[in-house]
Amino acid sequence: MSNQPAPARLTGIAYLPRWLGGTLCYVVFGLGGLISSLTILPILRFWPGTTTQRIARVQYAVHIMFKGFVRMLTWTGLIKVTHGDLQPLKDAQGVIVTSNHPTLVDVVVLISLMPNTSCIVKQGIWRNPFMRGVVSSAGYIPNRGADLLLADCKEVLNRGNNLIIFPEGTRTVIGKRVNDFARGAANITIRTQSDLLPLLLKTNCVGFSKQESWYQLPRRTIGMHIEVGEKLPYLRYDATAGGDAKMARKMTRDLEEYYKQQLDKYL
Ligand SMILES: CCCCCCCCCCCCCCCC(=O)OC[C@@H](O)COP(=O)(O)O
């Protein structure tokens, strides 16, 4: 949780503009996803160039769209994003970027800050007609069987793209600092020999959580403060010493501990 005090809760008629604004955000997101995946994104994707250039172009376009969308979320009072020094994130290349996952809009906020980034996306989104076009044009990775996943991740990281992973796998349960971490992020880091950069999302109130319906719009403005944590080099987990699986377990434990510690300061 962020250390800023939670803002007032809108009730009665005061909630109306928030509701209208929030509903408009959903409409713009849906239409934006649908229309861009039928127009600008395929043009950028199929315009001549190397695969790397073409994917970079689409990811940059999605980054700009999400920047605009975060502006809209801010303007309608749904969220207010602040951040510490983002230079390490701007310099990151071919790095696994992990984050805790308090809200529905986390990935949108993160990609609005990172121009050249892939992420692992759950299967449901690949079946969603509003989002499927965007995620496939942008070269995002479907969360599927371990071997296929690892091969896809290698390709992305070799291109110099970063890869966002939420080790919790799903949004944080209300009242917890983080859910138990899955071992995927550590496994991918160790097996692709990449470094891992942890991001911390510190929110000051509940909203857009997994325990609410997606159409329950936050009555308080969610203050979200983003901090870049300390880089975790894969070399610290020498797989030759203990074997991949054992090292991945250890790295997962360390990472989860680190998140708990860092987020504790803000509870
Ligand atoms: C200017 C408007 C631009 C709008 C463009 C819309 C493009 C749609 C691209 C979809 C990119 C993927 C976004 C996924 C957001 C999302 O749904 O993430 C939440 C999940 O992690 C939560 O997982 P869970 O907690 O398990 O429900």
TrEMBL record:
Domain Phospholipid/glycerol acyltransferase: 95-204
Entry keywords, A to Z: Acyltransferase, Membrane, Transferase, Transmembrane, Transmembrane helix
UniProt entry tagged with the keyword Acyltransferase: yes
Coiled-coil residue spans: none
Pathway connected to this protein: Lipid metabolism
Stretches that traverse the bilayer: 20-44
SMART domains: PlsC (SM00563)
GO biological process: phosphatidic acid biosynthetic process
Pfam families assigned to the protein according to its UniProt record, in alphabetical order: Acyltransferase
Domain of life: Bacteria
CDD domains in the cross-refs: LPLAT_AGPAT-like (cd07989)
Keyword Transmembrane helix tagged: yes
SUPFAM superfamilies referenced in this protein's UniProt entry, alphabetically: Glycerol-3-phosphate (1)-acyltransferase
Gene Ontology molecular functions: 1-acylglycerol-3-phosphate O-acyltransferase activity
PANTHER family named in the record: 1-ACYL-SN-GLYCEROL-3-PHOSPHATE ACYLTRANSFERASE (PTHR10434), PHOSPHOLIPID_GLYCEROL ACYLTRANSFERASE DOMAIN-CONTAINING PROTEIN (PTHR10434:SF66)
Protein name stated in the entry: Phospholipid/glycerol acyltransferase
Species: Shewanella piezotolerans (strain WP3 / JCM 13877)
